[in-house]
Design brief:
The structure is a single chain. The two termini are 32 Å apart. Helix 5 links the parallel strand 4 and strand 5. This protein is α/β, with parallel strands linked by helices. 48% of the residues lie in helices and 21% in strands.
């Protein structure tokens, strides 16, 4: 299991601590280190979400609420965002209030692997760049399946790895050397942006991730590679 820090505490505790530490610089670093492409990735997810016309959305690992805000602007749904990082949520709340969306978006500190919601509560669940941080991936996927309504859609946006030359080699160099270097400079956290490429490598992306979801019960699974496979959008449904 890849952990962000070399400590004896759980991955969950370490991930929360890491994001609390870099919360104030997270949005800037996210956009800077992805060259702004992350805006387009979220736009693609929200376009799929909008076509499903959900009334109630759960945004897991919402962070500073970027995806929740984008979804609120493109749908009329009620959106609940959860995260284990208090500092990230505080920044998200300020962004939501500044945009006047507090009547549409609620943010709550909660654990994706122990969701405090009843069965069949949401028309849609979405996660952007968060599932690879679950301590127990299958437990998190099971909890999301539990709270998703029958007929509901599950959307996951996550980093992956390009498979083709030369994108594979270029991305490998960037993630191994460039990303940790600039992440360290701007975040002030020596480990946080080394953890990112390590967690991407450890994550079962592509067809392997679909198989994990299928084993839990998700149906009509598909995925779409984005930007040569640097990120991937996964789409799944709960049929029964």
């Amino acid at each position: 299991m890849v952990k962000p820090y070399n400590q004896e505490s759980s991955k969950k505790e370490q991930v929360a601590g890491m994001f609390n530490a870099i919360a104030g610089r997270y949005d800037f670093l996210n956009h800077f280190l992805s060259f702004g492409i992350d805006y387009n990735w979220r736009k693609i997810l929200v376009k799929v979400l909008k076509n499903h016309n959900p009334n109630k959305i759960l945004d897991v690992a919402t962070g500073t609420a970027d995806l929740a805000i984008k979804a609120a602007k493109k749908t009329s749904a009620e959106i609940l965002g959860i995260d284990i990082s208090k500092e990230m949520l505080e920044i998200g709340k300020k962004k939501v209030e500044k945009l006047g969306l507090q009547n549409r978006i609620s943010l709550l500190e909660a654990d994706a692997e122990n969701l405090p919601f009843q069965n069949d509560s949401f028309d849609a669940v979405m996660v952007s760049f968060g599932v690879r941080n679950f301590e127990n991936l299958d437990k998190g996927l099971e909890e999301i399946y539990r709270v998703l309504k029958p007929g509901g859609i599950f959307l996951v946006l996550e980093f992956s790895q390009p498979d083709e030359f030369p994108e594979k080699q270029l991305y490998g160099f960037y993630s191994r050397f460039i990303l940790p270097f600039f992440g360290r400079i701007f975040s002030g956290d020596k480990r946080a942006y080394s953890y990112l490429p390590e967690s991407v490598i450890a994550f079962p992306y592509g067809q392997s991730f679909l198989e994990r979801m299928k084993a839990i019960g998700y149906n009509n699974l598909s995925y779409k590679k984005l930007t040569f496979g640097v990120a991937t959008l996964y789409i799944a449904y709960k049929i029964n």
